[in-house]
């Protein structure tokens, strides 16, 4: 039985005071929640402050990105060990904004996935198609390619610790959410890809989140699908009540 997992991706939003206030509010509200894993991924400069605000709570800390090298002359980058040092449990890798705005390739993401796992972080690996790719019937080709490229060389044991986030690019930050059927179809296909590459038990254990305009109003329908194991939430994770409304819609 997969435990639902709801993660908030704060992206490049908030300031130090509002990040801490939001984290404290979530930590407080999370006391009333059971049976679901929660994480928040603030901007890296606020990780330390947010870590303190959620210390001892049911909310885990995640980062939005990292670099694959361990240390050295990589100006502006942050290593997996540094994220662990700040108390991170998760790291989002291959988010569509990094792929499409910042030009990150599957190869680069793959190096990061390996480095994250080596350091003991659980990667949340994002995959998703553009609207034009969906409309031309290429959804699973694109996602299969991203999956194979981003997760090259990952063992079955490692795969079981990775979270996949299916995030159709056309649904991110647009208010245009995938229907529960559209999302479930891709999640089920992804699980088949995992089964073919590994085995039934790995496929059944990997959590696959949906991301793209998830809100309290649509969460229960999406999260009620058999192969949707949680959500990666952008905009709605910036308000405690909206985020916890989504959590309430999970299977937990
Ligand atoms: C995201 O950034 O991962 C995301 C899903 O954003 P939003 O919920 O705002 O669509």
Element order: H for helix, E for strand = EHEHEHEHHEHHHEHHEHEH
| Terminal CA distance | 11 Å
CATH superfamily membership: Aldolase class I
Bound molecules: phosphoenolpyruvate
Number of helices: 12
Helicity level, as a percent range?
40-55%
What is the annotated CATH architecture? Answer: Alpha-Beta Barrel
Structural class: alpha/beta
The global form is globular
Roughly what fraction of the amino acids lie in strands?
Answer: 15-25%
List how many beta strands DSSP finds.
Answer: 8
Low-pLDDT residue spans: none
* Order of strands across the main sheet: 1-2-3-4-5-6-7-8
- What is the count of distinct domains? 1
CATH class type:
Alpha Beta
What fold name goes in the CATH topology slot?
TIM Barrel
Main sheet attributes: strand count, strand direction, barrel closure = 8 strands, parallel, barrel
Radius of gyration: 17 Å
How confident overall, as mean pLDDT?
97
Quick structural overview:
The chain has 252 residues and is of the alpha/beta class. It has helices at residues 16-29, 47-54, 80-85, 96-100, 106-119, 131-135, 139-150, 156-159, 180-197, 200-205, 216-223, 240-248, and strands at residues 5-9, 37-41, 59-63, 90-93, 122-127, 163-166, 207-211, 230-233.
Question: How would you describe the overall organization of this protein?
Answer:
The chain is of the alpha/beta class and 252 residues long. The chain has one domain (5-249): Alpha-Beta Barrel (TIM Barrel), CATH 3.20.20.70. It has 12 helices and 8 strands. Strands 1-2-3-4-5-6-7-8 form an 8-stranded parallel β-barrel, surrounded by 7 helices. The chain starts with a strand and ends with a helix. The model has no long low-confidence stretch (mean pLDDT 97). It binds phosphoenolpyruvate.
């Amino acid at each position: 039985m997969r435990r639902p997992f709801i993660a908030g991706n704060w992206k490049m939003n908030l300031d130090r005071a509002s990040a801490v206030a939001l984290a404290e509010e979530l930590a407080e509200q999370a006391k009333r929640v059971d049976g679901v894993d929660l994480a928040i991924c603030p901007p890296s400069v606020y990780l330390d402050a947010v870590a303190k605000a959620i210390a001892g709570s049911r909310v885990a800390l995640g980062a939005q990105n990292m670099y694959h090298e361990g240390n050295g002359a990589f100006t502006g980058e942050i290593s997996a060990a540094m994220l662990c040092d700040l108390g991170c449990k998760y790291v989002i890798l291959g988010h569509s904004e990094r792929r499409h705005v910042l030009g990150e390739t599957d190869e680069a993401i793959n190096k990061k996935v390996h480095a994250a796992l080596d350091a003991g972080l659980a990667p949340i690996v994002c995959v998703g198609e553009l609207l034009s790719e969906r409309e031309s019937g290429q959804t699973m080709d694109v996602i299969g390619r991203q999956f194979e490229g981003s997760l090259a060389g990952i063992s079955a044991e490692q795969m079981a610790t990775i979270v996949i986030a299916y995030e159709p690019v056309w649904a991110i930050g647009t208010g245009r959410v995938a229907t529960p059927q559209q999302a479930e179809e891709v999640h089920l296909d992804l699980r088949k890809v995992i089964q073919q590459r590994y085995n039934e038990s790995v496929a059944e254990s990997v959590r696959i989140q949906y991301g793209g305009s998830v809100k309290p109003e649509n969460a229960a329908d999406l999260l009620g699908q058999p192969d949707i194991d949680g959500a990666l939430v952008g905009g709605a994770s910036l308000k405690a009540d909206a985020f916890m409304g989504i959590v309430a819609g999970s299977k937990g």
